[in-house]
Input
Amino acid sequence: MDAFSSPSSGSSSQPSAEAFMDQFKVQLAQAHAEEFLETIRGKCFDKCITKPGTSLSGSESSCISRCVDRYIEATGIVSRALFGSPR
Amino acid sequence: MDNSSMNSQELERFLDQEKQKAMLNEVVSKLTSVCWDKCITGSPGSKFSSSESTCLSNCAKRYVDMTRIIVSRFQSMG
Output
């Protein structure tokens, strides 16, 4: 049973505790992911698109790809610096 | 009794945990943004140089140290 189907037991109109918690976590994760994407957009535009032309050049496109990878990596480095690596 | 529904204590505990997690995520997001600006000065490469990754790591830790000083300074003021 996933978070979005009705409970199979009974005619309760309340979501089960587990369904509620799952849905809550999914929506929170989605909101966080959107915010993360927006941040990356800003950072990588600043770094890679210095003189906007009539289309994205090959070097701008590869800069963007590298930038996304590096920013995700930076997030991991900062996270480990703050909380340590999982053992 | 329908034990699949949540009582308010469980709900409160769940929301507290999620709030903690969200706050930690927020700190990581903010520090990554700040430290990226400080440490990644040129065009992004296909990997970080060791000085870039060290800078990111140091930046996060020094920011925490700084926060500690600021907080204790504030607390010591009248």
Notes: The two ends of chain A are 32 Å apart (CA to CA). Chain A has a mean pLDDT of 88. Residues 27 and 68 of chain A are 23 Å apart (CA to CA). Chain A touches chain B at residues 7, 9-10, 12, 14, 16-18, 20-21, 24-25, 28, 32, 35-36, 39, 43-44, 47-48, 63, 66-67, 69-71, 73-75, 77-83 (CB under 8 Å).
